[in-house]
Amino acid sequence: MLVTKHTLAASSAHATPYYLVRGTKPGPVIMITSGVHGNETASMAAAQKLANDCMAGRRHVVRGLLIIIPRVNQKAHRNKNRGKPDLNRTFPRHISDKAKHPLASAVFRLARQYGPAWWLDLHEANGLSQRSSRVLGQTLITNPGSKAVPVCKRIIGRMNRSIPIRDRHFNLKQHELPGSARTAAARLLQSRSVTVETCWSLNRSDRIKYQTEIVHHFLREAGLF
User: Per CATH, the architecture of 2-222 is what?
Assistant: First the structure.
């Protein structure tokens, strides 16, 4: 396994680190983004932990390529806010479109370069979806008809069996969000793209744990671990 650290949007106000983790055997490309919204800190911590674990040899990618951008929106993170404009509405919507923000453009250009089979975008949301179908906390979200649906269902089953408090169980949602990284990846790259949402009201350590476990499940399903 080879881990290298790079800079996305280098020499710009949006510069941010990313990591390439190469297995010793050929396999799929998996992209993980977090911090598209700068105040969703637990998801960023989980992504950075994965990068750190790979660099330290605590986690091994056996095959394929793993791309991790732990903190996409550095400016929003420094300002402790979601980000203005909302970066997750600025990704390309159609094949002929360009991203509406230079940072979204840099992220999507990297994705086009490697063509990920899977794209996991880590987020946090208000509310517990077990209590209300109108909220997004504790959900996996993918586009309607996505080939990711069977895998999402298996992972939700594993997660929920490990979580004793039913209110914290995960649900699957299927909808498009034009301008989001997830929908752009599905429409334009034919990636199996999934948004992972944990609930802000839970302890930060629990949110990091759930994000980490879900990512590991996806990487095992894809055959990287």
Answer: 3-Layer(aba) Sandwich (3.40)
CB proximity list for 197: less than 8 A, separation 6 or greater: 123, 124, 125, 136, 137, 138, 139, 140, 141
Show Cβ contacts of residue 129 under 8 Å, excluding neighbours closer than 6 positions.
Answer: 135, 136, 137, 138, 139, 170, 171, 173
Q: Is the pTM of the predicted complex or chain greater than 0.90?
A: yes
Tokens 């280098």 identify what position?
10
Domain regions of the chain by residue span: 2-222
Q: Is the pLDDT of residue 96 over 90?
A: no
The number of beta carbons lying within 10 Å of the beta carbon of residue 13 is: 9
Mapped to the 3 state alphabet, what secondary structure does 55-122 carry? HHCCCCCCEEEEEEECCCCHHHHHCCCCCCCCHHHCCCCCCCCCCCCHHHHHHHHHHHHHCCCEEEEE
DSSP 8-class letter at 166:
G
Query: What is the C-alpha separation between 148 and 194, in angstroms, rounded?
Result: 7
pLDDT for the residue 83: 96
Per DSSP bridges, beta strands 25-34 and 63-69 are parallel
